[in-house]
């Protein structure tokens, strides 16, 4: 491996990063991370293309095309499940390409990238299925101690039990069954594997959405409501949503002085003394937001209605072609973005932090809701898989007879 050209790769890159950050600070735009990520990927592809071209090979174009395709789809609509699939497809293709590149170039920088990927894969491999199962049991105990015992808060426990059952079946029971019975019972693990695959795509898409950084020229910030404590008090979860919106409110005033209004969105539940939006407004007033900068939407009972009814209020304003964002908890903004599109509201989300122990259950709950939104598509595909396995079991039994 040759080391002489490493400075020619590192120093220009660091210089370009330094110049870009200096320029970006003057622009008062918050989307630094994505621009750095995109620029870094294209710089890396340029480098890989140059060293590969010396061997008269141009396979770097394959992952590059996957990256461009993902980027074009993602830029048009960030809240789409397909974004996670395309990103994972790019990462997989890029990993295979790095292996190919190293075997034809023996480049030290490519080796370093493979080494970092190898460490990650090794950690995941060591943690493995059993480690993940133990983690879910631990998380379930923490959630049970700190939160209510509702079904939504027991999802990691249910998943851990299912994983335990799968492990017992695969290691003990499957070996004792005839071939046709194993094929028949494999329907459940195959379905489980399909939903794991879909969950990984959802998780990637949702994590990508966390890096959304809207520009400081917004006209409205919709704050999505959540349940109140004792029927009238803002809960810690809801408080984080409001604080995130207030932070952006002050950041925009600092950077551009562009006026922005908060739309508090949330109706009154059967166990609540006041509408969520009213309690949210009071919370914001106590933190220095002027009353004239707060609008109330108090009819919604779902996230879709949050978007729909807030859009009606925004449409009644005098602002032409208003720029809108919404604030919710980080695990929720991806699905909320889908509802915004369904309500014909052009808006992107900013996420408030959530307690780490709460995230596994929260993301599982969001995933179940995403599956429910497209349940016909997913269960049709699952039905096809189950039918194929059932036919295989029947054919296997016929040959035995």
UniProtKB/TrEMBL annotation:
Pfam families listed in its UniProt record: DUF218
Listed InterPro entries: Cell_Envelope_Assoc, DUF218, Rossmann-like_a/b/a_fold
Membrane spanning residue stretches: 6-23, 32-51, 57-74, 81-103, 109-138, 150-169, 181-203, 379-400
UniProt entry tagged with the keyword Amino-acid biosynthesis: no
Keywords: Membrane, Transmembrane, Transmembrane helix
Domain DUF218: 219-368
Superkingdom to which the source organism belongs: Bacteria
Keyword Ribosomal protein in record: no
Protein name: YdcF family protein
